[in-house]
Design goal:
The protein is an all-beta fold and 123 residues long. 0% of the residues lie in helices and 51% in strands. The chain has no helices and eleven strands. A hairpin with a 4-residue loop joins strand 7 and strand 8. The protein is globular.
């Protein structure tokens, strides 16, 4: 069992930056692939970016490529999302998720989810 708790959300102006954190508790964090998803009002939850258990492989959605970076620190059981050059369309609730293997982009592949953190970008 893995419990995920996100933090770092908030309100920023367009062009600004935020760093989200996801702290994991439970065993075997370092064996899980981790990902960030987001869900805007009235829209489906979508994949943002993911990282393999070792940190050696990442996957990034085209909509955030070049602006968002995922990283993890297995010694701290934490995964991060650095978000730069934020746009109003990045406004959403951001969720951290974990899965046992692979680095897929479907929500159905992820076994554990955090409660989400709100990110709001003003124009």
């Amino acid at each position: 069992q893995v419990r995920l708790v996100e933090s770092g959300g908030g309100l920023v102006q367009a062009g600004g930056s935020l760093r989200l954190s996801c702290a994991a508790s439970g065993r075997s964090f370092s064996t899980y692939s981790m990902a960030w998803f987001r869900q805007a009002p009235g829209k489906e939850r979508e994949f943002v970016t993911g990282v393999s258990w070792s940190g050696g492989s990442t996957s990034v959605a085209d909509s955030v490529k070049g602006r968002f970076t995922i990283s993890r620190d297995n010694t701290k059981n934490t995964v991060y999302l650095q978000m730069n050059s934020l746009k109003p369309e990045d406004t959403a609730v951001y969720y951290c998720a974990a899965q046992d293997f692979g680095l897929g982009r479907a929500t159905s592949e992820y076994k554990y989810w955090g409660q989400g953190t709100q990110v709001t970008i003003s124009s």
